Q: What sequence folds into this?
């Protein structure tokens, strides 16, 4: 027994020793450490704190490098980056802003929070700082994420939309040459795939009680010619177009074409299914494509294809060519920051054309010019995936729709998520569920 | 007769089997998954033992510079932070908590019943509600991202329970023992440390485990109050394995096993004190 | 409250004073820490609950008195959520208590390998809640989960089931994950209490002819009362306020069937920005918990008992 205790103690000591062993080389901050040999600064360095999502677009190591490069060019500014998972960014911003001075000078904002933060007075109006170069050079659609009432509150950084991806192998085996152009066609193809026993549930979605469900619903709603709000700002998603879309969703579940687990799957579970070859069609953000090429994660390496997001026949008749959802994340400056100027300089650097081109292998730039002419060739050559992802992006992003830009979006979205869930689990009919959500939206707008 | 005795011994043993299965099935599966590749984890039918086991998940954590992404690299540091914080919280809670528990249970004074009952009322508000005002205070005191702030906050969470628990154990000790010591000329404090605490060692160790795990396990405050590796704890590090754009489920499983290891090892080391505590009680009794 | 006998009345009085001072001295560090950290936040949250306070800088806070409370108490969603939370609490704590007691007794009876059993109990409890949640979410996964795998291989189901999408299965599954995680806590508390119990009472009863079952109910359980009370209160207070595990396994779904009251509070405070409402919710939660603790104490608390 004594030896067992000795071994246990040794293991404990080993874990502890190893844990405080070699520190990561790109540690964001240690008190007193400077990673760049700087010339003596003229004034005491100003330290700005920036919060961002980890593993979104660029990795923390890469963003740290950008920060170091910026510090080298601006020796009087120190940048401390903080990385958290997407689920927690909103909470950290809200808590951070409760303190004075705020915990963060700038933060990555998911575009669905922009209205909430503008209303709360969290974001600094930087319209005056926007250079004509920026206005002309950056994708017009990219500004949607951070502009309200003609006031700009930050800079675009990461643009993303949901893509329609399919398994080229399964499609071929089923005897189809082209991916579907309408959702109705999708049903036809999926039925055939299922009948031939290629996969049990050909389509997988993310319809859980989370934001992902609203994203998918946005795609289908707009693809049917519907909208979230009508001209007066009242809810329109419970009209016949919205109900049709939701009924279609439920129908695919009932027919066994959509995986029943969709009702509890977030985007990562969708990816898991698709990469395991268990789904022929999967709608997801761009990361699903690069992961599909990673042999450690994917069993369908080289078999994932892009196609324009389908629409409903009714939507096509109304002239809608494609409909997806905008999932961009710009950077915003916090209104109460004592270092607005320095923070702006850092954001401008982050989103500058040079930096964006430098990392274009990992994240597509927000500058239009990079997608034109010779630059396009350069861009496509920058990474092995770019020849596929760049055209896909150019083809899909113009059709990315916004979710409602209302300040009460979080609560409205929750109500809609609940409605979608109730309809999909059969607790209520689609009409009932959407009507209940619409009633809640009206209530929220009145507050 | 021996046959009967054998049966009497066998029956409880048979009962332990389903209990063991209940305890170990998820854990062994977690362990197995931590040695899998992601591809294998998604295999149907389930591969109970990975056909292509890999140490990659653990190597990424222990040899940070070779890891593909930063998340595994930061994990080891967070383990260390959690160890420091949880250990300090536990030791301090047991020491000052036992003093308080003894006072409530053995010393006659006006408010002890009120305090005894009132302690738990401080824990009734959900922690999520207190986080904003606490953040403002901590930020004002410039304590954000320092382990000490978590230590203090966790102590305030754990103390009420710790005092309750130790009070309960102290109560189960026969008063005669203490009176005997009193007769022998022991001071109150002496009785506490020489008579009461040695006998209640099993209870103290259980309380210590509880406090340690409260500090080890806590997520939301650790998330909000820490920003960098200087203070990040294990739950926060684990949460980073799976984000909106990244899936490193096998890494998280490996991290989970490692995160569970220190408390388990500590429990193993201190197990003997529970047993020895029992014997001490029997002898003294 | 037991005391040690003293002699002279006059001595007793000054001894009382001495005692009181000494007691306060022993209590001071704990009270300082607990109140020092939580007093102001609790008070400020309480005050906030009477205002219509939205998140944001320079937001006007209008005093609404009991408005937030009344609005909540009139809301059907609130009561549904309380009902769900009670369901979770009662079943989860009940199972933990029964299993914990049974296992504690099992360990105490020293079967073969009891030391190993006692040691293994810490393992589920040691797994951090986050990992526990993620692990069970994975086990319940519709397409790849171990639960489906196991049931399929045992021939109990014909094809994989999407467990977490079934409105009536989701909560029991979350309860299972929580029971697995926290039952060891109860078991260990009770086992430690059993270990501290004097054996003589039990032996005397055996000599008097009481069988194992009678000894268990009439002697052990009453002596375990303080420990059971502690375990019950600790688990009930925590189970009623459950948040982390629900957040990770189901995010409150499907169709809000696993939405608990603390989750609702979190949503109000952080997602919806309704801090006044969130504050009111917190106090409503505390009120419910207080009632439950009060009931327990009435039923189980016997300070004079030894």
A:
């Amino acid at each position: 027994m004594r030896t067992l205790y000795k071994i246990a103690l040794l293991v404990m000591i080993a874990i502890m020793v190893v844990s405080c062993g070699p520190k990561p080389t790109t540690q964001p901050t240690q008190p007193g450490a400077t990673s760049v040999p700087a010339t003596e600064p003229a004034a005491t360095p100003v330290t700005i704190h920036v919060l961002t999502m980890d593993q979104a677009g660029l990795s923390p190591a890469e963003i740290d490098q950008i920060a170091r490069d910026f510090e080298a060019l601006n020796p009087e500014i120190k940048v401390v980056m903080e990385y958290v998972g997407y689920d927690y960014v909103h909470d950290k911003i809200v808590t951070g802003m409760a303190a004075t001075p705020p915990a963060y000078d700038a933060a990555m904002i998911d575009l669905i929070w922009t209205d909430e933060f503008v209303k709360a007075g969290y974001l600094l109006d930087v319209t005056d700082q926007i250079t004509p170069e920026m206005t002309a050079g950056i994708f017009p659609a990219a500004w949607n994420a951070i502009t309200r009432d003609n006031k700009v509150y930050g800079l675009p950084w990461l643009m993303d939309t949901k893509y329609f991806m399919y398994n080229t192998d399964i499609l071929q085996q089923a005897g189809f040459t082209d991916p579907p152009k309408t959702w109705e066609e999708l049903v036809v193809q999926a039925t055939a795939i299922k009948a031939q026993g290629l996969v049990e549930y050909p389509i997988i979605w993310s319809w859980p009680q989370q934001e992902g469900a609203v994203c998918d619903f946005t795609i289908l709603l707009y693809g049917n010619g519907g909208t979230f709000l009508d001209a007066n700002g009242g809810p329109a998603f419970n009209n016949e177009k919205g109900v049709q879309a939701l009924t279609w969703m439920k129908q695919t579940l009932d027919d066994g074409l959509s995986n029943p687990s969709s009702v509890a799957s977030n985007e990562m579970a969708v990816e898991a299914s698709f990469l395991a070859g268990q789904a022929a069609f999967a709608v997801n953000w761009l990361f699903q494509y690069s992961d599909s090429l990673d042999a450690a994660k994917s069993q369908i390496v080289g078999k994932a294809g892009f196609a324009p997001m389908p629409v409903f026949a009714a939507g096509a008749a109304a002239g809608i060519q494609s409909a997806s959802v905008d999932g961009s994340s710009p950077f915003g400056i916090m209104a109460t920051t004592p270092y607005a100027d320095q923070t702006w300089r850092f954001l401008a650097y982050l989103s500058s054309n040079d930096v964006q081109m430098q990392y274009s292998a990992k994240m597509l730039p927000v500058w239009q010019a990079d997608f034109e002419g010779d630059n396009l060739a350069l861009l496509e050559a920058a990474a092995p995936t770019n020849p596929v992802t760049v055209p896909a992006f150019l083809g899909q992003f113009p059709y990315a729709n916004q979710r409602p830009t209302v300040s009460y979006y979080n609560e409205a979205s929750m109500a809609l998520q609940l409605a979608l869930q109730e309809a999909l689990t059969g607790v209520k009919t689609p009409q009932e569920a959407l009507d209940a959500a619409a009633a809640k939206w009206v209530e929220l707008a009145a507050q | 007769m021996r046959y009967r005795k054998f049966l009497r011994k066998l029956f409880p043993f048979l009962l332990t089997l389903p209990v063991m299965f209940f305890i170990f099935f998820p854990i062994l599966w977690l362990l197995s998954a931590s040695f899998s590749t992601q591809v294998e984890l998604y295999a149907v039918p389930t591969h109970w033992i990975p056909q292509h086991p890999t140490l990659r998940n653990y190597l990424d954590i222990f040899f940070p510079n070779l890891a593909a992404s930063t998340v595994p690299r930061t994990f080891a540091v967070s383990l260390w932070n959690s160890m420091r914080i949880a250990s300090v919280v536990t030791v301090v809670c047991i020491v000052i908590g036992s003093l308080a528990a003894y006072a409530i249970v053995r010393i006659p004074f006006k408010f002890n019943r009120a305090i005894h009952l009132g302690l738990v009322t401080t824990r009734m508000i959900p922690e999520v509600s207190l986080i904003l005002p606490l953040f403002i205070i901590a930020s004002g005191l410039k304590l954000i991202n320092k382990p000490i702030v978590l230590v203090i906050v966790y102590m305030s969470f754990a103390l009420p329970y710790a005092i309750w628990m130790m009070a309960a154990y102290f109560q189960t000790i026969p008063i005669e023992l203490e009176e005997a010591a009193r007769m022998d000329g022991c001071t109150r404090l002496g009785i506490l440390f020489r008579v009461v605490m040695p006998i209640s060692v099993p209870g103290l160790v259980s309380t210590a485990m509880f406090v340690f795990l409260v500090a080890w396990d806590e997520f939301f405050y650790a998330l909000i109050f820490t920003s960098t590796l200087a203070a990040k704890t294990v739950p926060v590090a684990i949460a980073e394995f799976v984000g909106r754009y990244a899936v490193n489920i096998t890494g998280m499983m490996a991290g989970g096993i490692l995160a569970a290891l220190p408390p388990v090892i500590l429990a193993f080391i201190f197990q003997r004190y529970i047993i020895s505590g029992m014997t001490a009680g029997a002898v003294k009794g | 409250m037991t005391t040690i006998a003293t002699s002279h009345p006059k001595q007793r009085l000054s001894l009382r004073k001495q005692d009181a001072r000494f007691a306060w001295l022993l209590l001071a560090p704990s009270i300082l820490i607990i109140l020092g950290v939580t007093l102001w936040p609790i008070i400020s949250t309480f005050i906030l609950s009477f205002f219509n306070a939205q998140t944001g800088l320079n937001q006007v806070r209008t005093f609404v008195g009991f408005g937030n409370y009344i609005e909540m108490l009139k809301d059907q969603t609130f009561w549904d959520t309380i009902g769900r939370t009670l369901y979770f609490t009662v079943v989860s704590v009940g199972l933990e208590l029964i299993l914990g007691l049974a296992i504690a007794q099992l360990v105490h009876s020293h079967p073969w390998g009891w030391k190993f059993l006692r040691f293994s109990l810490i393992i589920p409890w040691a797994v951090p809640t986050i990992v526990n949640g993620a692990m069970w979410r994975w086990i319940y996964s519709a397409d790849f989960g171990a639960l489906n795998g196991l049931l399929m291989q045992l021939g109990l189901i014909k094809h994989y089931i999407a467990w977490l999408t079934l409105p009536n299965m989701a909560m029991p599954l979350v309860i299972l994950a929580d029971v697995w995680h926290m039952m060891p806590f109860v078991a260990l508390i009770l086992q430690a209490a059993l270990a501290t119990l004097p054996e003589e009472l039990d032996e005397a009863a055996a000599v008097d002819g009481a069988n194992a079952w009678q000894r268990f109910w009439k002697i052990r359980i009453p002596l375990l009362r303080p420990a059971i009370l502690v375990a019950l209160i600790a688990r009930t207070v925590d189970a009623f306020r459950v948040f982390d595990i629900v957040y990770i396994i189901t995010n409150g779904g499907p169709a809000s069937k696993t939405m608990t009251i603390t989750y609702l509070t979190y949503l109000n405070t952080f997602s919806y920005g309704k801090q006044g409402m969130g504050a009111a919710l917190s106090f409503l939660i505390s009120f419910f918990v207080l009632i439950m603790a009060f009931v327990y104490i009435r039923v189980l608390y016997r300070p004079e008992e030894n």
